[in-house]
Amino acid sequence: MASLKKVMEDEIACKEWFLPGNACCAGCGLEVALRWAMKALGPEVAMVTPASCLNVVIGLWPKTAPDFPQFNMAFAAGAAVATGFDAAFKAKAHKFPGKGWDKMTSICFAGDGGTTDIGIQGLSGAAERNSDIIYVCYDNEAYMNTGIQRSSSTPHGAVTTTTTFGKERYKKNLPAIMRAHDIPYVATCSISEPLDIYEKFKKAKSIRGTKYIHILAPCAPGWGFPSEDTIEIARMAVKTGFWILYEVENGVLTLSKKSKTLLDPSKRVPIIEYVANQKRFAGISEKTLIELQEQIDQDWENISKEIFCQQEYSK
């Protein structure tokens, strides 16, 4: 992983492309995710934002926070519009060579509701076409902007305004669904690891075709923890193995540095250390807690088997 010193030697990375004065809540995970993504991508982007917190926190024109082209869009249309932008850039590059249109990146930055639920049809279509876009899901695990309703990305046992006794179903695994589309790049990130975010977006920018990046972005008011604890909450999600950091390039899975050591179960922190500091899990039962831990262990067992098979195949 690149050092912070090396990253800050990059003139683009030293700048803030999502500016101060925005309307993000204190301790907003989304803001960290977006800032570090843009440090890697730079200003030569056109960003589509389906209905989400990001539509609101950018502020009111003419004093909006993004220092790059950003377009608010309907919930279901994010991936489709990003695909259209890419087609336009390629047409411009063909008609006006040498004018920089070939350097533009089309990106969709969506919440979990606009990705795992309402936006999945357009996203699947873009992936099936292998549209040359970067699609990002910043995952705060509920519809936070409209009142903290559950999404299919909400974890098992979490309380929302529509799961008042805790969600019964488990979190939808969108990165796995995107892998099934056979796209060239899929990655997961956490805001607790900003350099990991930076490196994965740098890589995604250099790859042609559909790139999908899923970022854990804790929400202090929605999850119920002090705003100053956002980074530590995200870090604990990784340490417990609840959130696995990896990338899949052309079908080959590689664990990221902070998750690689967790192949050894003894290195994982028990899930209680993660949920204990969030009010959304305040009433969680012992049974549900055990189920969550068992699901984590099963996810890691599947990862271990895949890595073993890859190693055996490569011999």
Give the tags:
single chain; 8 strands; Rossmann fold; 315 residues; eight-stranded mixed beta sheet; alpha/beta; globular
Task: Describe this protein's structure.
This protein has a single domain, classed as Rossmann fold (3-Layer(aba) Sandwich), CATH 3.40.50. The longest helix has 29 residues, at 286-314. The chain has an eight-stranded mixed sheet with strand order 2-1-3-4-6-5-7-8, sandwiched between helices. The model has no long low-confidence stretch (mean pLDDT 95). The chain is an alpha/beta fold and 315 residues long. It starts with a helix and ends with a helix. The chain is globular and about 65 Å long. Helix content is 41%, strand content 14%. The chain is built from 14 helices and eight strands. α3 packs across α9 (194-206) and α5 runs parallel beside α7 (120-129).
